[in-house]
Amino acid sequence: MGAVIEVKNLVKAFGDLLAVDDLSFTVYEGDVYGFLGQNGAGKSTTIRMLLSLIRPDSGNITLLGKSLLTKRHAILRQIGAVIERPDLYKYLSAYENLSIFARMSGIKPVNRSLMDQLEQVGLAERAHSRVETYSQGMKQRLGIAVALIHDPRLVILDEPTNGLDPQGIADMRNLIIGLSRNLKKTVLVSSHLLSEIEQIATRMIIIDKGKKIVEGNVDELFHPGNNRVHLEVAEQEKAWQLLSESRWGQNLEREDNAQLALQMPPEDVPLLVQFLVKNEISILSVRKANTLEDYFLSLTAGKQHVAAFTN
Amino acid sequence: MKAITIKFSLAVLLHHCTNIKRVIPILLVMLLLSGTSNLLAQDANGLLSEIKTKLQKVNDYVGEGNLVTDVSFINIPDSKVKVYFRQPDQFRIIKADGISIFPKGGMSVSLNTLLSGKDFVAVPGGYTTYNKKKMAVVKLLPVAENSDVVLTTLVVDESTALVHKTTTTTKDNGTYETFLEYGKYLSWGLPDKVLFVFNTNAYKLPKAVTMEYEGSKKAAAKKPAGDGKGRVSVTYDRYLINKGLPKGIF
Amino acid sequence: MLQLLQIELFKIFRRPRTYISFVAIGAIVMLILLAFYVDGANYMAFGLQSLTQSFEIQGNVLNGYLICFIILQTLLIHVPLLIALVAGDQVAGEANMGTLRLLITKPVSRTNLMLAKFFASAIYTMMLLVWMAFLALLLPVLIFGTGDLMILKSEEVVVLSKADVLWRYFAAFGFAAIAMTTVAALAFLLSIFAENSIGPIVSTMSVIIVFTILSTLDIPIFNAIKPFLFTTHMIGWKGFFDEPVSWQQVLQSAGILIIHIVGLVVASVIIFRKKDILS
User: Fold this and answer.
1) Which residue has the higher pLDDT, B143 or B108?
2) Which domains does chain B have, with CATH numbers?
3) ipTM of the complex
């Protein structure tokens, strides 16, 4: 499978703020690629650079095997996107909006193809109503229809579930999975919710402050083997000594508040407890956490755990 | 003023003469004249009545001519006009379907008044050479003492009883002159061309309120300043004399 | 490019705000016509006061041609607002609506997009002027008839004979089209920098008002900069009502305006090409 998106050493600063910092990642044909990060992590900036809305300060973007810098038109012809809110011309109907963007995408809009597309997103009945009369969910669906009208190879969806109700979120999830499975499209979908990405993505990246934290297959990243254990002990120094010489020593880390963190399969936890008790270490608490969730929690709490994920 | 011009073209001109109050200098002149130059005065009056007789052959006319206005601040194209006249003093210039601008006052000239000598006193002014011809000078003094007109001078060809030039001096509006050229209609005492010259120095257009185009100003600034005089002329192509006039002209 | 232009025109003429201008011009012209119909004679008497003190004016001064001139003189000062309403919205409005980012992700060059948007604004401007010509020239001529056109200026009173007027109006509308396109180009440039259309509309009008004040004030220090202000040249349409027309001046003004248009549009394209779309 070839690379659909190849980003290398991408940098973008707005004044003093480094929004994207030496970011590299690759999306392969057929991926549903989760683009995960907190709000302000640089997701939107990166996506906008992929779509030529923003010029990178440096770095290379290759899409569908072509350089974005030199083959912008050819590339954009094969990309469909919904960026943040699915805003369209409110004073025009869904049909008119779809027709305009179809023409701008380089295809001749035929009545039937437009209506088919609207039918697919369930808007056929309201095709000729003005968009300003639409609900948020309808607008979102129209945005998807606009993104897909020219049958793109790559679909980029920036926070597609924002502002949707639970039913809308579920519909969107199914739609994205359908795009990949039935229509064989490569999808890049960004979100600030780990759970969302976990449910739909095949591969993913987590970025923070414009830097890549981790990238890989979702299955692997969420693999139990990668679970992490937080250990709170009375004698941190002694425990550190002992553990660093043990079989878990490679994945040991110090944390604040007299805590230690280890990466280990969950089935090893009883062994770890036994080992510490045998060595007369008082265990105050043991907490098991998925590394991704853990990481995300720590981001929310404002902590830095970057080192743990640089693999 | 314009109207005056035209009347002049008919024959003689008289101007602004309805008031009868007398002005002291005029009185003095009149006293002098009446005492010492009675004979000359008689000649002047005689000449006037000759002129009058000639003019009275024309009861009415329609003149067709070309109106040319040369006033520094009036930019109007030359135009065909019709000039209507009926005795004793009805007179009108009409530009069909168009706009015409004439100096004011002309329309109120009273030919009758002039010729009757009621409001004016005619005084002989000797002879002058005009257009290489010897011509009589007749001065007309207004009887009205606060008349704006101070003096009117006529240059008359005694042999034909035609007025060739008039000069009117006013208190407030400077001096204006009329030049008459005769040709085809000489026998009727009607001129082929009338040129009216008047002072424009005193007149100022108000500053326009709306925005003006700088380009126009620049172009206007390049124009020569002129001599402070305005000129209006009518060159007649033909007259229809004593054929009656359509109703409602005046 | 033609397709883009079609799309932009479609967007402009499907918006209700586009028609505000047409309605506004219609309303103003109707009001002026009504006023002249009812009370034109008094207006003329007052307006010509200074002249009628010394001169006798004969003929039908208050005719359709004169009313057209008065309407143009009154209206052309305010039309820039109506132009800015649409041209200032071209980029800023799309940014505000959120559609700009979608447009830019389409396989269309930014240069073409900008040119299409500018030409669409220019076409709107032309249509507004055609509408104005129709209302301000045709209606008064139908109601009041034609005749010689008399215009009072600071330096002179100009009377143009009836047969010599109509071509001047066509030329004047042509010139006005250039002048108003300059306004459109300015509003268009400013609309790149804003994310809602109020900013560009207000700043376009501010520039025009300030420049116009500088153009109008007869103060020596301002006179020196007058030739460099495009507003000075925007009323060049009046040059067609001089006799003879000072062609050199009028053409020079038209040339200066065209240079402005080209400069503003080129600047718009260059700036927009480099702009990061963050809306």
Assistant:
1) B143
2) 2-239 (2.50.20)
3) 0.84
